[in-house]
């Protein structure tokens, strides 16, 4: 499990060890987004081990992979804004890292699952993308994710490696680093800080509760056909500004906190996934957006131990640089 100390990966590791009794080796570089705290409840658990290392480092990969019968790769640089200001590390992790893992899986003939994103298809005004829609990414983040997907497919075609790609829509839930929309808005609202909304706030996203995505990836790991990609979409679409208004209501604040800021360059207007193919495999999302958002806001309110060190560390400096104002 690569990138298991991050947001989605940590939920997946918990599900696999607790609900499926799997033995899991986590390989993670522990970037700013990867935190051992995300897995603190598993420390010392039988069948769980943690290896600190990068997926682009063949020695670290070899140390983690021996004894495994499948690789699931969540490891990535994941923030679009950071990919615009500094794309290099996105290439290293997404391209060299994925290639290094594919080589290690090929040598050992292991099943390989690549965790990918709806952003590889680009923006769509109406309707939804299927797995055969062309890849048309628009940021260095989504372009490197698309590049990694193509490399994964090439290993299925060329070397008969048993690969499956899972393309998820926008995830939300506990343990998500606060640079992303929902935790950013929840934590700023809880602190009475301004809520910075890009452009007109009418960018539409298809929201998927993190435990649902983790379950969908587990389903594809078990039942996905080799060489195939599966879209894993959420049940509800919502424009960003409506997400912010719901968070204001959940945290008892008012709309005076909203502050419209200059839009992200090349900001995609709408993402939408059709997910008939994974539904036909027997998976469906369980958590509707309203219930998931309420659960998420409550988790951040009740788990200051998790976000306090983040809000006083690297993230604080990042936020000041990016939004030109300090956190309260
Ligand atoms: N968050 C979403 O909405 C979303 C939606 C669909 C798909 N995805 C994909 O799911 C995966 C996980 O996303 P997330 O939101 O949990 O990200 P995250 O940023 O919270 O976690 C990424 C993890 O990868 C680790 N990592 C980064 N570079 C590494 C490297 N070179 N070697 C080893 N570990 C490395 C980090 O330390 C961190 O633990 C990513 O591949 C992302 O593209 C995310």
Task: Explain what this protein looks like in three dimensions.
The strands form 4 sheets. This protein has a 4-stranded parallel β-sheet with strand order 3-4-5-9, with helices on both faces. It has a 3-stranded mixed β-sheet with strand order 6-8-10. The chain has a two-stranded parallel sheet with strand order 1-2. The radius of gyration is 19 Å and the shape is globular. The protein has helices spanning 7-20, 58-65, 80-85, 88-108, 140-159, 181-191, 210-223, 240-250, 276-280, 289-302, 304-311, 314-323; strands spanning 24-28, 48-52, 70-73, 111-117, 163-168, 170-172, 195-198, 204-209, 228-232, 236-239, 258-261. Helix 5 links the parallel strand 4 (111-117) and strand 5. The chain has 328 residues and is of the alpha/beta class. The site of nicotinamide-adenine-dinucleotide has 30 residues, from helix 1, helix 4, strand 4 and strand 6.
Number of helices: 12
Helix content class: 40-55%
- Percent of sequence in beta strands: 15-25%
Average pLDDT number: 97
- Rg, rounded, reads 19 Å
Task: Give the strand line-up of the largest sheet.
Answer: 3-4-5-9
- Overall form: globular
Largest sheet: 4 strands, parallel
N-to-C SSE series? HEEHEHHEHEEHEEHEEHEHHHH
Rounded to the nearest angstrom, the distance between the terminal CA atoms is: 36 Å
Task: Give a nutshell description of this structure.
By secondary structure, this protein is an alpha/beta fold. The chain has twelve helices and eleven strands. The chain has helices at residues 7-20, 58-65, 80-85, 88-108, 140-159, 181-191, 210-223, 240-250, 276-280, 289-302, 304-311, 314-323, and strands at 24-28, 48-52, 70-73, 111-117, 163-168, 170-172, 195-198, 204-209, 228-232, 236-239, 258-261.
